[in-house]
Amino acid sequence: MSTMDAKAISGDGEEASGTRSETLGESSRLGEINRRQAIRIAYLIATLELIFLFMQFGVMPYLAKSLGLDSVGFGYLQTTFGVLQLVGGPIFGRFADQFGTRAALILSCASGSASFLLMSISTSIPLLFLSRLPTVFMHGLPGAQKVITDFTTPSQRADALGKLGLCFGIGIIIGSALGGVLSTKFGIFVPAYVGLVGNLINTIIAMIWIPLPAKPKSDHRVTEHGTSQSGNLFSIREILHLMKFPGVMEVFIIKVFAGLPIGLFLIMFSIISMDFFGLEAVESGYLMSYFGVLQMVVQGLVVGKLSKHCTERTLLRLSVFVFAGVGLGMALMRTVWHYCIIAVPLVFAFSTLATITDSILTKAVPSSDTGTMLGICASVQPLTRTVGPTIGGVLYKQFGISSFGYLQLIVSIGLFVYLIKSKIPLTETKSQ
């Protein structure tokens, strides 16, 4: 072979190599753009679904009353909703693992549409209870968390999950206000019509812009013990199997018990705001809006910043420690202004605990099971809503508002000591 031929071949090889590099680089850039777009769409879907959900929460008591449902019956209605959400969370998560996040978000939005449709034709109490049934699969927030988990690296996850706090805050503020305005000016059923149309639009958004299939990234510890890619969708055994992974049970118990006392307080807050603080309905609404703004700022901005500089173990301990201080403050508070001050560390601890534990638990299981794990995490709040009215009512009636604070203080101190002494295996990551 001549020298000229060799140079020609060498030149062709270098050109081909350069072309391949450019192609790979372009593919990588397109992949990054698609990932960012999917995450933004997930934020949008979660925000809209939360707006419609809080709009429904604001209207439901008045709709129930107009149909002749008393306070006890309304309690049963709320308990029904809580139980359905509790049962549906893990099942929805397994559905997301087996059929992809796109299918899961479509299911959630379609379930919301069905619930609002039944609510819009609820001319009797049985129909109103029937409108709760589709909510078993209405889990837009866990669906969005699943998209974020699939399209972020472990070091980016806490920050990205934290930004869902912005969605939650927007949902509280806009949803509560919108439900009141629509029902007052146009009729009690108009929010249901808006929720129906809105969820249908959400369904179309998920169908068009969420990638298919949304495959998880392979940066988790993948083992032969993954459960969600096979087996029965409703298998309780396979769902609970995730608790056997190192650190999962410990972190989940901390997640449940650290937030339980304050969860009981928040469930009883509508009664406390009237009886203890002496607030009118509009003033209570302003206080909820203040709480929503705090959550937007803290979970959307502060937690993400901290996750870039502190390990998750440190943030988990910090949230529990702050909860102890919140408990002491709640035990001593006497006026609504005291609560406004306490609300700042309260929201910080609550948001940090929720975000960091979700991030830790999704890293502790195989990537094929992150949806199921997020579904289990999502069942914590429905569990609190289910048992909360009974336990919270007894605490408030028998021991007063300070009992919530002392319970929070005792539980938080115990968990903090446990976190200091125990060696829970955590994946230590910080965003770069």
From TrEMBL:
Residues 35-426 form the Major facilitator superfamily (MFS) profile domain. GO terms for molecular function: transmembrane transporter activity. It is found in: Apical cell membrane. It is a multi-pass membrane protein. Pfam families: MFS_1 (PF07690). Keywords: Cell membrane, Membrane, Transmembrane, Transmembrane helix. SUPFAM superfamilies: MFS general substrate transporter (SSF103473). Signal peptide: none annotated. It comes from the Eukaryota. The chain crosses the membrane at residues 41-63, 75-93, 105-129, 160-181, 188-210, 252-272, 284-302, 314-332, 339-357, 399-420. GO terms for cellular component: apical plasma membrane; nuclear envelope. Residues 1-27 are annotated as: Disordered. May act as a transporter of organic cations based on a proton efflux antiport mechanism. May play a role in the transport of chloroquine and quinidine-related compounds in kidney. Plays a role in the regulation of lipid metabolism. This is Organic cation transporter-like protein 2. It comes from Columbina picui.
